[in-house]
Design brief:
mainly beta, 16 strands, 10% helix, outer membrane lipoprotein receptor (LolB), chain A, 16-stranded mixed beta sheet, 303 residues
């Protein structure tokens, strides 16, 4: 259940209404066919992503379904999700009327709690401690920045930080970056080269990847399998996506379905404040890593 944190890897591409108009004329208009000739420039592709991402400042879903494939029997959770730029995020998931997961983020810190953890502690970490190297490892391989990018909130530019590759079917943007622990990674965005009819649920951006740079091994990926269009903003949002994550030898797949999403609506700011959970210990990861592994948990737990 721990890889549920990567649920924040929900992916959104904000497309303009009428995206196949002359406004996006650099994309070939043939659909689901190989596209030949010169591809769009890297600058055009990144500008396209940034313009569309600018249409979404926040979104909320009160009708989120998550099917977790992490063993012989899949588990389906019902959930709620809220997020807004730049780092505000909150997600909860329930099973049979019992809370199973709660996680969030704000400008200062991020946190998570999973009922099936042993022990079921609430873990938290400040971005400052993480950036200054006080947290040597995380129990999930995802950077908060990658999470927000896969949600389509961007920004994706500047174009200079990307390498672009293409074939007759796809355009691929590759950014070489480092994890908060200094690990070299590649963040990859894959989109179809031929324009897709997003109003019929066909995704244009189809995949976000987080790869280990040295080995090329996939750490996490998010694949959009169906889209929906917000009528007020023209933003294209995921209706269905698959999130895959490898944590050690474990491989976990999350099938996510959003039946309704509200865009750019006011969100309660209290949702992005970590709350003490009755009967649950709060563990500061920076303090935990500052102590020898054999030391008692006493002293590293915040009330």
């Amino acid at each position: 259940m721990r890889p549920l944190l990567s649920i924040a890897g929900m992916t959104i591409l904000a497309f303009a209404t009428g995206c196949t108009s002359s406004r996006w004329g650099f994309l070939n208009r043939q659909k689901d066919q190989p596209v030949q000739g010169d591809p769009p420039t890297k600058e055009e592709v990144v500008a396209y992503l940034n313009e569309n991402a600018g249409r979404i400042q926040s979104f909320r879903s009160n009708d989120l379904s998550i099917t977790v494939h992490a063993g012989a029997i899949p588990i389906t959770l019902s959930g709620h999700l809220m997020t807004q730029k730049p780092r505000d995020f909150r997600m909860s998931g329930d099973f049979a009327a019992s809370k199973m997961v709660d996680m969030g983020s704000n400008d200062q810190e991020f946190w998570w709690w999973i009922s099936k953890d042993k022990p079921p502690d609430q873990y938290f970490c400040s971005y400052k401690d993480m950036q200054e190297g006080r947290v040597r490892a995380l129990p999930f391989p995802i950077q908060p920045e990658w999470i927000m990018e896969t949600m389509g909130l961007g920004p994706f530019g500047p174009a200079e930080k990307y390498e672009m590759k293409h074939n007759d079917y796809t355009l691929t943007l590759i950014e070489r970056a480092r994890s908060p622990q200094g690990r070299a990674v590649r963040k990859v965005v894959v989109m179809k080269r031929a324009p897709q009819d997003v109003f019929k649920g066909n995704p244009q951006v189809v995949e976000y990847l987080l790869l280990d740079d040295a080995s090329g091994k996939e750490m996490c990926s998010a694949q959009i399998t169906q889209t929906q269009v917000d009528k007020n903003t023209g933003a294209v949002l995921p209706r269905r996506l698959e999130l895959r994550c490898a944590i050690g030898p474990e491989k976990v797949r999350l099938d996510m379905r959003f039946e309704s999403i509200s865009i750019n609506v006011p969100l309660p700011q209290t949702a992005f404040i970590r709350q003490v959970m009755p009967g649950v210990r709060s563990v500061d990861l920076a303090q935990m890593f500052a102590n020898p592994p054999t030391q008692s948990a006493q002293g590293i737990l915040n009330p």
